[in-house]
């Protein structure tokens, strides 16, 4: 299990330093000084083939000659020696490795070859490696500085993970100056093995870590990262700064979608879906960590600004609007209250200017009024030194008021200045109220907090895997794609693309192919005038640019002239184009909105969906948003809301509102098409015309990945987020004859899950959680059990409908270990439904699911007085072990069972 090995890295009892040195200024020298002089209590063993001692400590020629098995080896030798050193570590049973050395894939093929050898050795000995080309790690609580940064850092609750060693060092220096503490610091380097996902998993279970900060340049395993982040983001804020915002990965895209959805937009969508907060500046990392750890999240984006100076108030208002927030509209009651307590010449609006002579009583009265206003989601309190007011008194007054009101709204302060407000800012910091040098910093933090809240809401959105009876027939789509691949084509024709869309009930305009002008006339008569003609050529993607479109044709003569003109223009535009004819379709005269709906396969995150303003000017407007499939109606609505065109869709001037519900359905079906067909490299509808009643895909194009057309895929392996596994739904009868539904748990099951615990005895709860817990539980606790990532965890619940109410009778849960081969199961049945055979059925069913997930072994750990569960596991064929710690471990080897069954 990864976390156990990582414990050898972050909590080692002994360390070997390979490349330890007596030469001042070298990496090996600084490492030894940090490990021996900063208070680390574990054993430190220098390894140097040429020295008998380093810094007065006995040295060893190799790790194999150290007299004990050490937990961690830190390697700081030339790159070419690292594979041999790693082999020695494997033979010496050293589980944790940090490779400081540089000179690997970043220098080209020779370095890449060294990395390949390292990976082979890692697999051979099941090592866990941080690096190479990294600074190392710092764990302040045990005085462990396993880096070549010669400094100590304060202990705290933030885990900071940096992909850049130099930047990480600079940020630590800033944090030390700001008196910020850390639970751990990790420089990950090239992430040849341990990556961001592994570290989120580790620090997510670390009780000391309350938030995780990351500087990211690139992610290696997107699915692992998103799975880990979704698992822990609700209880531990994950705050990310991602470098390279304006580098686009699609250099020569075959569609608008490919050109518009650059790498950074995809990362942005991934962070949102993972529940992480993405910030823009280094200072925002710590500002957000402080606020998210101490303040309630704002319910909405409506900010009230209280200030004793007009200028800073206006600046804060500008910053709020620029970042997508709103100035809270003060209620009439609040206005009346403020009229009664403020001077007659106060601003009478938000920002609330309480004037330069405001003292503590005026500040407190204004804050109290805003606190009681339901239109206010957060309050920013600004102070500038002027008049005879004493800032410390104002701070004390605000603190007292916040304590009395219970901190149920977000409070941020900006007491501007240095010496004059130093005491006031200290008072705020000591009492959990974030304070900032400038109003803009405070506003940025407020909006990041609101973004975090919205991102957490997305974690509850788990789109369902469509039931078999509602999935469109896949074979016709498969044949269309295969026929194109057999013809050595990557680009599907407009007609082929529309056929695929039609299979997914996405409304298309009937399109007919004409290879001659005579055929075009016949098709036009069948369709009915007016018609549209478009060029049909695999080499012409953007037809309008090539002069390959003719609109509103009303006669046979017009069709013939348009046919000849289109062919001539396209030949002039691209003499090498293979012209297969034209398409003929009905001219849609509906007055509506032109949208674009597209998708492309990102090399890291798989299929991504793009939505936005369409038409020929799509790349000019660049008004688009990105989402990761699978999508449901809530998720696609959020995508719409992230665009400016959404405001138009709600109705604009003489245009009535668009049929947004229909648009949601189209987008969900479009997403399902990408879930079903990883062979689609790019697909785009532009424009998608929609009005208040109907929608039409007027033009469409698709590109296939020929390498995937005939390949076999594990279901959903191309997605970074697994859909809700509908296939695990089944019905079963209790011994009393009543039918229950067995199904995977959902986020919205939290009330049912809590009710199940209320129906369980203290003994049942103790057997399940190894301690007695009281219901009701904190939402953060219960959400952990209902809001799960189906890649790493499956919980099957038994549901019964009784008196028109649903009840949860019991649950069994499978935790898949990070190695993907082993799993742990836990199960419980609420007392009123025990004795009905349900526990036996739940365990039997989770065994089948474990086989479906290709696990090799599963186990369960039970208290030794849980006789019924122990007996059940024995009856199910588990082998029992008694470790002597008051528990019993039941183990089932599924691989051996399968082997025996096949013999």
Automatic annotation (TrEMBL):
EC number: 6.2.1.13
Catalytic activity field: acetate + ATP + CoA = acetyl-CoA + ADP + phosphate
Domain of life from the UniProt record: Archaea
Single GO molecular function: ATP binding
Residue ranges constituting the N-acetyltransferase domain according to the UniProt record: 740-898
UniProt-listed SUPFAM superfamilies: Acyl-CoA N-acyltransferases (Nat), Glutathione synthetase ATP-binding domain-like, NAD(P)-binding Rossmann-fold domains, Succinyl-CoA synthetase domains
UniProt keyword terms in alphabetical order: ATP-binding, Ligase, Nucleotide-binding
Entry keyword Nucleotide-binding: yes
UniProt domain ATP-grasp: residue ranges: 498-534
Protein's UniProt keywords contain Lipid biosynthesis: no
Coiled coil: none
Protein name per its UniProtKB record: acetate--CoA ligase (ADP-forming)
């Amino acid at each position: 299990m990864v976390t156990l090995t990582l414990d050898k890295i972050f909590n080692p009892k002994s360390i070997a330093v390979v490349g330890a040195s007596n030469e001042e200024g070298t990496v090996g020298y600084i490492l030894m000084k940090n490990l021996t002089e900063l208070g680390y209590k574990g054993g430190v063993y220098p390894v140097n083939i040429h020295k008998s001692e380093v810094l007065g400590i006995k040295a060893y020629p190799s790790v194999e000659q150290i007299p004990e098995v050490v937990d961690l080896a830190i390697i700081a030798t030339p790159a070419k020696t690292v594979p041999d050193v790693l082999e020695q570590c494997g033979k010496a049973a050293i589980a944790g490795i940090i490779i400081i050395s540089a000179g690997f894939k970043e220098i080209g093929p020779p370095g890449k070859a060294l990395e390949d050898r390292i990976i082979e050795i890692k697999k051979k000995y099941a090592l866990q490696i941080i690096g190479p080309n990294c600074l190392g790690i710092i764990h302040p609580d045990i005085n462990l500085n396993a880096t070549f940064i010669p400094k100590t850092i304060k202990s705290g609750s933030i885990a900071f993970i940096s992909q850049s060693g130099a930047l990480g060092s600079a940020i630590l220096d800033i944090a030390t100056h700001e008196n910020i503490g850390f639970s751990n610091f990790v420089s990950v380097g090239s992430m040849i093995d341990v990556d961001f996902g592994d570290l989120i998993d580790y620090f997510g279970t670390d009780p000391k870590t309350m938030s995780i900060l990351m500087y990211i340049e690139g992610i290696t395993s997107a699915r692992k990262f998103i799975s880990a982040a979704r698992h822990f983001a609700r209880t531990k804020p994950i705050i990310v700064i991602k470098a390279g915002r304006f580098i686009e990965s699609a250099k020569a895209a075959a569609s608008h979608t490919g050109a518009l959805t650059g790498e950074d937009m995809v990362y942005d969508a991934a962070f949102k879906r993972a529940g992480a907060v993405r910030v823009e500046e280094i200072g925002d990392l710590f500002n957000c960590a402080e606020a998210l750890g101490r303040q309630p999240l704002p319910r909405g984006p409506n900010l009230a600004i209280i200030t004793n100076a007009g200028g800073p108030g206006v600046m804060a208002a500008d910053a709020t609007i620029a970042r997508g927030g709103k100035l809270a509209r003060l209620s009439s009651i609040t206005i009346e209250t403020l009229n009664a307590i403020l001077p007659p010449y106060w601003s009478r609006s938000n920002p609330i200017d309480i004037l330069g002579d405001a003292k503590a009583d005026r500040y407190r009265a204004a804050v109290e009024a805003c606190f009681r206003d339901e239109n206010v989601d957060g309050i920013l309190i600004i102070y500038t030194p002027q008049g005879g007011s004493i800032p410390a008194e104002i701070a004390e007054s605000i603190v007292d008021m916040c304590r009395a009101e219970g901190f149920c709204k977000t409070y941020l302060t900006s007491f501007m200045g240095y010496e004059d407000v130093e005491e006031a800012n200290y008072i705020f910091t000591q009492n959990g109220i974030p304070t900032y040098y400038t109003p803009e910093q405070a506003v940025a933090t407020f909006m990041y907090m609101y973004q975090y809240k919205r991102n957490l809401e997305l974690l509850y959105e788990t789109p369902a895997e469509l039931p078999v009876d509602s999935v469109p027939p896949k074979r016709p789509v498969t044949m269309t794609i295969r026929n194109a691949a057999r013809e050595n084509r990557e680009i599907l024709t407009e007609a082929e693309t529309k056929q695929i869309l039609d299979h997914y009930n996405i409304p298309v305009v009937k399109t007919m192919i004409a290879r001659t002008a005579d055929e075009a006339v016949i098709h036009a008569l069948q369709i009915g005038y007016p018609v549209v003609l478009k060029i049909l050529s695999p080499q012409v993607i953007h037809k309008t640019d090539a002069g390959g479109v003719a609109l509103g044709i009303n006669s046979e003569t017009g069709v013939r002239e348009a046919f000849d003109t289109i062919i001539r223009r396209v030949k002039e535009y691209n003499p090498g184009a293979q012209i297969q004819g034209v398409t003929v379709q009905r001219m849609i005269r509906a007055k509506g909105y032109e949208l674009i709906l597209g998708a492309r396969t990102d090399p890291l995150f798989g299929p991504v969906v793009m939505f936005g303003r369409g038409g020929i000017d799509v790349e000019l407007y660049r008004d688009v948003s990105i989402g990761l499939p699978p999508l449901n109606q809530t998720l696609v609505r959020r995508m719409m809301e992230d665009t400016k065109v959404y405001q138009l869709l709600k109705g604009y001037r003489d245009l009535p509102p668009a049929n947004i519900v229909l648009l949601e359905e189209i987008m969900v079906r479009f997403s399902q098409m990408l879930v079903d067909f990883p062979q689609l490299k790019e697909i785009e509808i532009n424009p998608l015309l929609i009005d208040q009643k109907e929608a039409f895909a007027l033009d469409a194009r698709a590109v296939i990945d020929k390498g995937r057309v005939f390949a076999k895929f594990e279901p959903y392996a191309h997605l970074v987020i697994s859909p809700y596994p509908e296939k695990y739904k089944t019905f079963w009868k209790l011994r009393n004859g009543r039918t229950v539904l067995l199904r995977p748990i959902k986020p919205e099951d939290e009330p049912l899950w809590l009710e199940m615990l209320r129906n369980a005895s203290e003994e049942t709860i103790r057997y399940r959680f190894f301690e007695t817990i009281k219901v009701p539980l904190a939402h953060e606790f219960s959400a952990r059990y209902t809001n799960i990532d189906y890649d790493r965890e499956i919980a099957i619940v038994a549901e019964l409908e009784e008196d028109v109410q649903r009840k949860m009778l019991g649950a069994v849960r499978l935790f898949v270990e990070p190695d993907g081969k082993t799993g742990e199961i836990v199960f419980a049945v609420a007392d009123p439904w025990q004795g009905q055979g349900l526990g036996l059925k739940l365990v039997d069913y989770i065994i089948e699911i474990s086989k479906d997930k290709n696990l090799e072994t599963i186990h369960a750990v039970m208290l030794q007085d849980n006789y019924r569960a122990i007996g059940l596991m024995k009856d199910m064929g588990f082998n029992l072990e008694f470790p002597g710690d008051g528990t019993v471990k039941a183990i089932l080897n599924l691989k051996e069972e399968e082997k025996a069954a096949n013999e």
